[in-house]
Amino acid sequence: MADLCAQDKINEHYPRNSPVHMMCWMNFWTSLCYLAYLFGFSSTGYDLISFLLRHPDAARDVLLFCLCGAFGQLFIFLTIKSFGSLTNTLVCTTRKFFNILISVVVNGNPLLPMQWVAVFMVFIGLITSTLIKSKSRFKYKKA
């Protein structure tokens, strides 16, 4: 399988690693890089801590944002481990597509004609991808 992306190669090479294990190690190394920048190379980290201590409501919002991000990230890693990175990309694109459509309908946000063309192209791409996938599954079951 030469056409696998990095996540698929990692999952293939280390099949016993769980999505949680992968997510924790990725976040560990990312956190080290962020901490080195925030506290080692600039004073931004100290300013952030000072601000959050002065504004507990903002600290609560930051904490909730981080928890929601971690929860969403867990679903991303589970999807990649269970179905592959291509399916994950399709899920993310579909979610963003429907978020835009819901925003247009609920909030009355207008789209320009070229933006409607882009929405139509995404919709056609999703339908085409689904049809191709279902045909390949049908051929696999038939054989």
From TrEMBL:
Q: Which Pfam families does the annotation name?
A: UAA
What residue ranges are annotated as transmembrane?
20-41, 62-80, 114-132
**Keywords carried by this UniProt record:** Endoplasmic reticulum, Membrane, Transmembrane, Transmembrane helix, Transport
Coarse class of the protein's main subcellular location: endoplasmic reticulum
- Topology class, membrane: Multi-pass membrane protein
- Subcellular locations according to the entry: Endoplasmic reticulum membrane
* Protein family: Belongs to the nucleotide-sugar transporter family. UDP-galactose:UMP antiporter (TC 2.A.7.11) subfamily.
Q: What is this protein called?
A: UAA transporter
